Amino acid sequence: MLSSWPVQVSWGGGQACYLPACDRIQLPERAAFQSVNALYATWAHEAIHSTGHASRRRRELGGRFGSRAYAREELVAELGEVLLGDRLEIGSGSQNHASYLGHWIELLKETPRVLFQVLSQAQQAVELVAPVAGESVTPG
Question: Whole-model pTM?
Answer without folding.
Answer: 0.83
